[in-house]
Amino acid sequence: MSAELPALDGVLTAHELAATARSIVAVQEESGAIPWSAGEHTDVWNHVEAAMALVAAGEVEAAERAYAWVPTVQRADGSVPMKVVEGVVEDASGETNMASYLAVGVWHHWLVRRDLAFVKEYWPVVRAGLDWAVSMQLPFGGIAWAQEWSEDGPGRVNADALVAGSSSIHHALRAGVALADLVGDPQPEWELAGSRLAHALREHRDLFLDKSHFSMDWYYPVLGGAVRGDAGHALIASRWDDFVVDGLGIRCVSTNPWVTGAETCELVLALDALDDRARAVRLLSDMQHLRHEDGSYWTGFVFPENVNWPGEQTTYTSAAVILAVDALSLTTPGATIMRGTTLAAPFAEIGLECGCDSDRVARRP
């Protein structure tokens, strides 16, 4: 384990990165929850991403307080509420990629800290979250994105799958299989689900809910590891001009003059996974105009009005910056978490079992 902090020449120093980590800690609530910004809601996906960034930046105590919060909001079926505001559930709906993402965080913690007791403590939480997500797999292989929840318990399943959410679950399943091997509790059903999901993300993205105007739907199959190699390069090339704004970062939505820092850094991580280092470094450098004087980051920037919007700095943006710097500098043992080189082997293709050639595939689970 190295005490060295991530840094990238010409982009961010270790001192600057430490300030960014402190800006996340400053927003952390007493419960351990890390909201988007002070007083805003917490969701488990962005919360876990923030915890990963804190581990990479050496803020281990705060990170482990964050991880300890996750089991307190997980329900018996493995789902977690979509929005929690200062300890109160604001939206009880369960979202599959949120329930899954702890697997990535725990595997990242293992890579950096090599703390097997930590892994074993969180393994039941990881397993429950991934089991619930896998139970939401649709006939064509995608994962239904959400389920309503009320005081009476779970309700209607939203029978649409999202490319970005399913891509994140693909990543989480590979982390989950790696954790299963580590603790000696194999989960072959996750491998089967991962194979069907990978096939859908590679070959049948037209069966997912159309969110193609969002940049996340563009690069997430690469970021989540389902699409790599020549296919990954081709996918990134296909919409580069729609989303990338030279000198500023990338648009969140193709039709809006608004670049966002978190999406830019996620594209940086996707490019790094494709060994496209030059463009990754350039984009990370481009988005530094969003840096606030305290080390935090504005969410986005509207042009040509040249206004930061919304008027707040967000923990998930700061977290994405830290993880991108670590990935490009290869500073910590967890730096390759998005490359996937330490995860379970890529899922095999089993496309013939997905029913993809039937009449547009029933979407109801």
Please outline the helices and strands.
Blueprint: H1 14-25, H2 44-56, H3 60-73, E1 81-85, E2 88-95, H4 96-100, H5 102-113, H6 116-135, E3 144-150, E4 153-161, H7 163-183, H8 188-203, H9 215-223, H10 229-243, E5 244-245, E6 249-251, E7 258-260, H11 261-273, H12 277-286, E8 300-302, E9 307-308, H13 315-329
Antiparallel strand pairs: 1-2, 2-3, 3-4, 5-6, 6-7, 7-8, 8-9
Helix pairs in contact: 1-13, 2-3, 2-5, 2-13, 5-6, 5-7, 6-7, 7-8, 7-9, 9-10, 9-11, 11-12, 11-13, 12-13
In words, what does this structure look like?
With 365 residues, the chain is α+β, with helices and mostly antiparallel strands. The protein has a single domain, classed as Glycosyltransferase, CATH 1.50.10. The chain contains 13 helices and nine strands. The strands form two sheets. A five-stranded antiparallel β-sheet has the order 5-6-7-8-9. α1 packs antiparallel against α13, α7 packs antiparallel against α8 and α11 runs antiparallel to α12. The C terminus is likely disordered.
Q: What's the level 1 CATH class?
A: Mainly Alpha
Characterize the overall form: globular
Portion in beta strands: 5-15%
Q: How would you state the average pLDDT, rounded?
A: 94
Describe this protein with a few key phrases.
alpha+beta; single chain; 365 residues; 12% strand; 4-stranded antiparallel beta sheet; 13 helices; Glycosyltransferase; disordered C terminus
Summarize the structure.
Helix content is 48%, strand content 12%. By secondary structure, the chain is an alpha+beta fold. The protein has a five-stranded antiparallel β-sheet. A four-stranded antiparallel β-sheet has the order 1-2-3-4.
